[in-house]
Amino acid sequence: MSLNAILVEDEATSREILRNYIGKYCQNVNLLGEASSIKEALVLIKNNELDLVFLDVEMPFGNAFDLLDQLPDRTFETVFVTAYDHYAKDALNNHAAYYLTKPINIDELVNAVDYVEGVREKEASLEGEVLRTKSNGVEGKLTLPQQDGFQVLNIAEILYCKADDNYTEIYLLNKKILVSKTLKYFEEALTEYPFARVHKSFLVNVNEVVKYKKGKGGSVVMSNGKEVMVSASKKKDFLSYFN
Hints:
Elements lengths: L2 E6 L3 H14 L3 E7 L2 H10 L4 E5 L1 E2 L2 E2 H6 L7 E6 L5 H6 L4 E4 L4 H21 L14 E6 L2 E6 L5 E5 L2 E5 L4 E4 L3 H7 L5 E5 L2 E4 L3 E5 L5 E4 L4 E3 L2 H8 L4
Parallel strand pairs: 1-2, 1-3, 3-6, 6-7
Antiparallel strand pairs: 4-5, 8-9, 10-11, 10-14, 11-12, 13-14, 15-16, 16-17
């Protein structure tokens, strides 16, 4: 699959290095243009249908996050390329598909491109299809600890779980239950069922997903109308739940 991409980097030498690496090692990337500033990048993004943007963090008159703030409905994936590793958390919060540090490691660059390609291929293969999860049935019960004992819950009734520090909010169709267990606990307890960790704060019942949106990093709409963000790093795993 060919990926339409642009390169946003203010340093000419860094642009040349990355351009050459992409041309030599990532032949599935169709580099449509380059930008050295936020202003130039916005023009390229608005005038092209993009799959991927290679994005330096620090630029004149702003940074990568200022650029992304102006693109709330973006559908492309971003790969951050920077000399500073302290931006990693902000990059993840802005749904980066990958985070590369300079000097660029060629294997990591190839991994980043392969990851984005895999996500785009899976998204394309699912469009217009009758979706079936790999595990259609959800049978089983889950015990939830309470002060006076425990509650027994049918697993199929769970729409999604949300992390709340060391607690977890379990959302059913018409109510919410707060449990003194971490989200990691429920992720492990439900590992044999079609529950996907789509974000650091969310674990969703894939059978209750009614819509997938590419969006920034992507999101899913649950059967109760709740829209849940999908981290770019979790997107490929989530899409793999569908045939």
